[in-house]
Amino acid sequence: MKFREINSQQGAELELAPMIDVVFLLLIFFIVSWQSARFERDMDISVPSAEEAENKDRQAGEIIINVRKDGTVVLNGLPVTNPELLAKLKAVSDAYPDQAVILRGSSEANFQAIINVLDEIKRAGIWNVAFATTRPEQ
After folding, report:
1. Per-residue pLDDT of the chain in tens (138 residues, 90 and over written 9)
2. Terminal CA-to-CA distance of the chain, rounded, Å?
3. Domain carrying residue 61
4. What is the CATH number of the domain that holds 84?
5. CA distances (Å), origin 73, targets 27, 42, 85, 89, 93
6. Are the C-beta atoms of residues 118 and 126 closer than 8 Å to each other?
7. Do the domain assignments include residue 74?
8. Which three-class secondary structure state does DSSP give residue 92?
9. 136 with 51: CB under 8 angstroms?
10. H or E element: which one contains 2?
11. 15 part of a folded domain
């Protein structure tokens, strides 16, 4: 009779396929979260402060419109003119009627430039508009 040796167990093999799947899922997660956070970090914008400012939960697919102090309108990281802004917002509004828009106007921006953007948002048929503010520093 031939007996197996007790100490001759095979070593565990390392499965690479599940590990590669996990790495790709993490990579996709970080790319998507970086892409959405990138639009809100326009360094040329210093939003006004408000006593009652709140941190709201962000919705997926929100459109962020920045109005810089020189009056330049930036839609999700790309500078646009008012007719281009209207065309893009109209297309989004037709596809998603309850689309949320965050308007981040610089505190140093011309008030008329912000009103012009609000007019384009209204013409596009978007009603869900929020203004970005920060809490005043103590």
Report:
1. 666 666 666 666 778 888 999 999 999 998 887 766 555 555 555 555 555 545 555 555 678 888 888 888 988 888 999 899 999 999 988 888 888 888 888 878 888 888 889 899 899 988 888 877 666 665
2. 85
3. 38-131
4. 3.30.420.270
5. 31, 11, 8, 13, 19
6. no
7. yes
8. helix
9. yes
10. none
11. no
Q: Is residue 61 part of a domain?
A: yes
The two tokens of residue 26 are 């993490």
* Helix-, strand-, coil-residue percentages of the chain, each rounded to 5: 35, 15, 45
Q: Is residue 11 part of a domain?
A: no
Contacts of 103 (CB under 8 A, 6+ apart): 65, 67, 114, 117, 118, 121, 129, 130, 131, 132
By CB atoms closer than 10 A (0-12, 13-18, 19+), residue 36 is: middle
Helix or strand run (H / E) with residue 3: none
Q: Are 100 and 130 in contact (CB under 8 A)?
A: yes
What total number of domains does the chain contain? 1
Residue at 106: amino acid letter: S
Residue 52: how many CA atoms within 13 Å on its side-chain side?
A: 1
